[in-house]
Amino acid sequence: MTVLFISDFTLEQREGGAQVSNSLILKKGRELGHEIVEHDHTSSPVNFLSSYDLVVSSNLEVISQRSPNVIDFILRHPNHIRLEHDSCSYLTNELRQSLFESSQKNFFLSEFHLSFFKRYYGDYFKNVHIVYDPVDTEIFKPSDAPAKYDVVYCGYLHHLKGLNNFIEFARENPERQIDVFGWSDTNAAELHFEQFDNVTFHGSRSHTEIAEIFKQSKAVYHSPLVNKPFCRMVGEALLCGVEDILGNTEKIGSYLEFKKVGYDNFRDGCKNAAENFWSKATT
Hints:
Blueprint (H helix, E strand, L loop, with lengths): L1 E5 L10 H15 L3 E5 L14 E4 L3 H6 L1 H9 L3 E4 L9 H10 L2 E4 L2 H11 L6 E3 L18 E8 L6 H10 L5 E6 L4 H6 L5 E3 L5 H9 L1 E5 L10 H8 L4 E3 L6 H9 L1 H9 L1 H9 L2
Parallel strand pairs: 1-2, 1-3, 3-4, 4-5, 5-6, 7-8, 7-10, 8-9, 10-11
Helix pairs in contact: 1-12, 10-11
């Protein structure tokens, strides 16, 4: 199949959970023999001069603001499918409904993800598939390594991801030793943690290093202000055997899926996610 894959950012441009997932999906798609053209917010409009068997739309916040003609192209394409990573709150109600109703298939990351879309926007989603974020389960798996860390946070530090909740947790639990492996758009987050004797800020780490950190951790803290359709950090920690997830777990799709289906089914869902996506997308 010839495929146009449209998303705001590539993994090289922004190292977020959606970009990691898209990168793994694109890699698998090419391994399966699909000819895939990526279109991001910096791409040339020349991409739209070719014809494609399939158009996949993912995150579109920046593209919808800078190039609304791209949305028009997506809505007109006869074989468009939607790969939703977030809450899609950046679109108007009318445009969001048009996007999902015009798509041939709609992919969500968890049952929780689909449920809050229906609750917020209405029940107009057709041909729905639940496919987890893909995770390399050869790296993210349990280990017999002794615990080195008490509580960890790994990832982007942002107020919507519960940064203030995290700071409050550190303040109210001086007996818990907290290690932060993350980054922010400024150094403000790091400066916040300097006031606490029980917090060590390490900065960002590679995916392989994060796996080793989870394998040596007793607990992970995450208390987002917004719904997390999946949450790669928590999903990867669970796969490494960390079941003590501190914070507001009722807003975290991967945690709710894990509790519902158990370790083995959750692992298989993450391991086979990219292949499952292409199987469902192309049939």
